[in-house]
Amino acid sequence: MSPTPADRQQRSTPASAERGPGHGSTPVASGTVASAPAAGRYNDGLPTSASESAIAMRRTIGTRSERVRELIDDAIATGEFPPGMRLDETELAERFDVSRTPLREALFQLASAGIVEMQPRRGTIVAEVTPHRLVEMFEVMGELEAMCGRLAARRMSSLEHERLMDAHHACERSCKVMDPDAYYYENERFHHLIYEGSHNDFLTEQASALHRRLRPYRRLQLRVRDRLPTSFHEHEGIVDAIIRGDADLTAQRLREHVVVQGQRFADLIASLADLQRETTRALAAGEAAGKVGGAKAPPPARSRRPAP
Asked: In order of start, what are the domains of the chain with their CATH numbers?
């Protein structure tokens, strides 16, 4: 039987016009414009509500992992989690009140930065650095800071100078009361303002990454006798060179401020030895109680801590 005019008209209707927002469930009359998908329907094959929920979940996990990473990083920097200590995931999850997923993301981020190591059969260990390696790292840090300072002396604005002076004065207040912990945090802000003052994002990223890796050891230096006033005096020379726009002098003073050599190296190694002895006593006491502040020590026979 020959098709009727109505049949021919229906067959000529575009397929896109026959499908509604629900992928074909509701026909749309010829000559009309299909409306956009309604809220709660489909987005790339997924219900909008489910897609948004997945995005929100990823953001939540990301935010939690960043917070946990910072907390673990701070515990390592302060010596609460010293080099060689094994970090127990169950206890860390309980301590920071998070699930395993954001915790593991945080540990992976710290491992990628070299702050912790993930070892077969031992789990996650706070990274240990030999004295020779430490000297090499501070040498590179000194050159990175010198580069940042050289550019900062040429590129910092008047507003950035004011911020640097504010950080410098905050260091002065901490120095006067001989508070190494407060000075440490103000000192971090001081150095990061110089990194940012270079106006070179890649250089800032590299300097910040190595600075983060050296945080426990930079903090230890501030506990050495007379290091606080010496550090602040060196800051004064750095600030003066930056504000005067003397790029070469800024680079020289920052390099000398950061590089560990001579007596400063001997003092740092002695501080490391003191920290290790304190850690050994704390771990022994913690093991007797069955728990050590959210982390466990590695087996003594397999310890790789550098000798004093």
From this structure: 62-128 (1.10.10.10), 131-266 (1.20.120.530)
